[in-house]
Urea transport system ATP-binding protein (Methylobacterium goesingense), 236 residues
Amino acid sequence: MSALVIDGLTVVFGAFRALDGLSLAVDPGEVRAVIGPNGAGKTTLLDAITGITRPKSGRIHLGDGLDLTKRSEAEIARAGVRRKFQKPSVFPALTVRENLSLGCGPGCPAATRSARLAAALSETGLEGRADVPAGALAHGEKQWLEIGMVLASEPRVILLDEPVAGLSDAETARTAEIIGTLRRPDRAILVIEHDMAFVEAVADRVTVLHEGRTLFEGGMAQARADARVIEVFLGR
Ligand code: ADP
């Protein structure tokens, strides 16, 4: 059974089809990368999954059958679907610890909050930075903090929007390690990224989007050898 299922999803902007009957299923425990040229529909896909953009047709549901298609952004987040946007949106005046505590959400019991805080600090490797204001962190650390805030909500689906944009090689390698530790048998991770070496390091499979449709699905090594993928994307 898949953890996240996109079934025949079409999103239109006026007469333009940003997603055109897209189907995609992410397995539990899988890290899936969605790659493709600018304008392929990657951001639109994440916007549709998170309820920011309403599809014209098609369905989005979780592995247990929960239909997200007509839910609000808040309901989708409550169902355990969490997104890390490209630009870190941490609270600069709050410490790393305080930011991570927010990830547990309002009404979160104190014991749960502290357990999740400890787990998020350790999974992101930010233990030594717990009392530093988020505004004083390096760009890479801010990205990791935001991944930690997503984690503290115990998500079933994690959506990552260009997590290594603007990071150094060392920070990129560290981010790949962190994402590796986020894998769980009951969790699906979907990542949009332009850095192909990073994608190769983190993703089990890649979906190559082109003009709102799937051009290719499979391993990164096969994607690199696929004539259509080379023509529309990798060969450019
Ligand atoms: P990607 O993330 O793969 O670069 P996007 O999902 O951002 O692609 O965009 C897909 C296409 O949809 C692009 O041609 C873009 O111009 C168009 N698009 C995205 N959002 C809107 C919008 N709000 N209004 C009109 N066109 C849009």
Remarks:
- The chain has a mean pLDDT of 94.
- The CA atoms of residues 120 and 148 lie 5 Å apart.
